[in-house]
Amino acid sequence: MEKKQWKRFVRLHPKWPVPPNSVVQYLQQRSLGSRKAQCGRQLYKESFSNRRIPYLLEEKEYSLGEVNKVFASQWISDHAVVMGTKCNKLIVLYIWNGKMVCVPMISSTIPTEDGLIADEGSGIHAISLNPSQTCIATGADNPNNLGVYAMPDFDPLCVGEACHRDWIFDLKWLDDEFIVTGSRDGTIALWSVADCFQSDHASSASTSKHKSIRPRCHRHVTSSAGHFLHEDDHLLQKVRALEFNSNRKELASVVVSSGCICFWDVCQFREVQCRKLHHGRENVCLALSNSYSLYAVGSQSHITLLDSRRGKTVCSLGIQEECSGVRSVNFQGDILSAGTGMGAIKFIDVRKMQYLRKESGDFLCLQVGDGWLSRDDIYYSFFAEYAYPNAIYTHCFDDSGTRLFAAGGPLPTGLTGNYAGLFQ
C-alpha cells in the first residue's frame, strides 16, 4: 500500500496506529512504553482529564478519633480505604459514611529474639494489594514482621518473621506469590506466600489459624561507595521505599541515610546498580511511572525524576517549602502528585516537567484541613507556641482517577494527631 493511501486509510480508521516515519517518531513511541498500543484519541482524553481533575477537587474531611498519624493507605474497593497508623492499627474506612472498622493485627508465632528492635511506636508504614487483589500485605503486631491477609474479609493468612532486625518501612508484590520487604535495618527480603501452605513452615506450637513463613532470600544493601555494610551500620542505611518495575523485572530501593537509589535484579535477587541522588536528604518516598519510564524520589527540598531505563536524573523540581520535605509521591497518568510536610498536595505535569498553575500564576495546591491534634503535656511544653500543619504521609487515587484519598498527621515526632480526607 502506498504512503498516501495508507494515511487516508488511517484517517478513516483512527484506531489503526500510524507507523513511524522517522527515527524521532520511533523513539517517541518507544518512550511511551505500554501506551503505544492504545488509541490516540483515548490517550488524548485521558491526558486532558488527568490535567483538569486536580483543578476540580474538593475536600471532605473525616474524623478518626484519637488515632495517631496515618502512615499508609490503599483503596480496597470503590467505597473503602484501608489505613495503617503509627499506633500500629489497621483500619478500614468507609468513605460514604466515615465508619471505621479495626482489623486485628496478625500476631507473631515466635517470641522476640534478643537484639531485635520491637518498638510499638513505629507503626504500619506500608500496605500493598497483590495484582489479583486476593491478598493484602502489611506489618504484623511486631513491626519487624510481615503480615499477609486473605481478601476481601481480612482473614489472617501468614506472618513472615525471623528475618528483619528492625521495622519494615516498605513492601511490594512482585506477583501474586512473591513479595519483597525493605527494612530499617538495611536489608531487603524476598518472601513467598505459597510457603504458608507447606507444613514445614507451620508453627506446631501455635494455636493460631495463620502460619509462619521464612524469607526465601535476605540481602544487605550496599553503601554509596559500593561496599557491603557492617551489621552494626544498619541504623545508618535504612531502606525507606521500594518500587517494582515489572517491565524490566527490576526493584528500586531508596536508602534514606546515604541518599542513594539502588536497583536490584529480582530474578537473581542481587543489587546491580547504586546511584547517588543529587538531593539526598530525607529521601522517604518513591513512585514509578511505567508509561513514562520514570522514577520519582521525594527529598527534603526537591522532587527528582530519574529515567528508569538508565537510572540517570532527568529533572529536579524544588517544592518551594522550607525544611518540611516531600512525604509522599504518586503517578496518575501524565500527572505526578506530591504530598508535603506542610499539608499541601502539589501536581506536576510530567510532559512539561512543570507544576500545574492557576490562572493567577500561582502553583495549584490542595491544602488539607486541620485534622485532630492532641494537646497533651508534650504539646504545651514544646509545641504550643507554633502551628503545625498535617504532613501528607500517604495519598492515593482510586481506579477511576477522579478521587484522591490523603492522610497523615503532624510532622514533629513528639506530637500526636491525625488527618484523613477525600478530594473528589
UniProtKB/TrEMBL annotation:
Keywords: Cytoplasm, Nucleus, Repeat, Ubl conjugation pathway, WD repeat
Signal peptide: none
SMART domains: WD40
Localisation per UniProt entry: Cytoplasm; Nucleus
One Pfam family in the UniProt entry: Beta-prop_DCAF12
Highest taxon above the source species: Eukaryota
Pathway involvement of the protein, from the record: Protein modification; protein ubiquitination
UniProt WD repeat ranges: 161-193
Gene3D superfamilies cross-referenced by the UniProt entry: YVTN repeat-like/Quinoprotein amine dehydrogenase
Ranges of residues in domain DDB1- and CUL4-associated factor 12 beta-propeller: 53-423
One cellular component term from this protein's GO annotations in UniProt: nucleus
Protein family per UniProt: Belongs to the WD repeat DCAF12 family.
Protein's name according to its UniProt entry: DDB1- and CUL4-associated factor 12
